[in-house]
Design a protein that fits this description.
49% strand, disordered N terminus, disordered C terminus, elongated, alpha+beta, 6-stranded antiparallel β-sheet, 23% helix, 282 residues
């Protein structure tokens, strides 16, 4: 004859041992999750970052002749030497971040309404920033300075004007942990030209650097000089516009696996305690 009391004792003991193992497993899972969180927090101090700079100068290098009625000017109406200068610099972000941006557009001329050989336009753009968790973080920078000149030939002869463009660009994007971090950036210089339709114009010019940590792009640099030549028939007015730009961002999205692992441990722990209480009640 089987002793039901002894069998019940064995079953209760087995259940207690099972509950104890479940609770120990839960504690182990929680400990592992806590360790992941600690070391994950340390890793989260790593950052995604960017630094972009663009500087350019456009100098009047030569003028074939200076007849009456010809001039190179900042403003055709002779009223505002700062006419049509744009300096846009914005920065934003969220979480743990830093973002900086600056834009500068200037000219160097004794008379801003009558540029001569040696006078010049200059632009400079800069953007820098980083994003660093704990938590999701983002940083963005954007800057673009713009300045232009009008070349007005109301004389009776053709005039040729040569400009010398000198520029340098640089861009660095980094991500300490490419699985959770990304930084991208674009840096450029541009010379745009304008005039009456049908009249020959010099080709516009631009140079661009692009970087993306997903593509493992190394730091980049670019510098050059270029001659831009305008040939103005009598009675023509043309324009030249100089600009640079920096646009970049850094994003960090931490992995959620530590929170998931911790949650599993808590669920197992609570479940084990509930089973133990039901066993005691029975």
């Amino acid at each position: 004859m089987i002793d039901g009391g002894a069998g019940g004792g064995l079953n209760a003991g087995s259940m207690r041992e099972g509950n104890l193992l479940s609770e120990r497993s839960a504690v182990l899972v929680c400990a592992l999750a806590a360790g992941w969180l600690v070391f994950g927090t340390l890793d989260a101090r790593a950052t995604a970052s960017y630094l972009g700079e663009a500087n350019a100068t456009l100098e009047v290098m030569s003028i074939s002749s200076m007849p009456a009625g010809f001039r190179i000017t900042r403003d055709l109406f002779d009223s505002d030497p700062n006419f049509n200068i744009g300096e846009t610099a914005t920065m934003s972000g969220s979480g743990n971040f830093d973002a900086q941006a600056s834009a500068s557009a200037t000219f160097s001329a004794v008379d801003p309404f009558s540029f001569i050989v040696g006078d010049s336009l200059s632009v400079a753009a800069m953007g820098s920033g980083f994003a660093s968790p704990v938590g999701a973080s983002m940083a963005e920078s954007f800057s673009i300075p713009i300045i232009d000149l009008s070349i007005d030939n109301q004389s009776g002869i053709e005039v040729t004007v040569e400009f010398l463009l000198t520029y340098d660009l640089s861009l660095t994007v980094t991500a300490d942990d490419p699985l959770t971090e990304q930084a991208t950036g674009l840096v450029d210089v541009s010379v745009a030209v304008g005039g009456r339709t049908g009249v020959p114009l010099p080709d516009p010019f631009s140079d661009v650097l692009f970087g993306d940590t997903d593509l493992s792009d190394p730091p980049q640099m670019g510098m050059d000089t270029r001659t831009i030549t305008f040939v103005l028939p009598a009675g023509e007015t043309q324009s030249v516009q100089l600009s640079t730009a920096v646009s970049a961002d850094a994003i960090v999205i931490p992995e959620p696996s530590a929170l998931v692992t911790g949650g599993v441990g808590v669920i197992v722990l609570i479940g084990g305690r509930r089973r133990r209480r039901r066993c005691g009640m029975n």
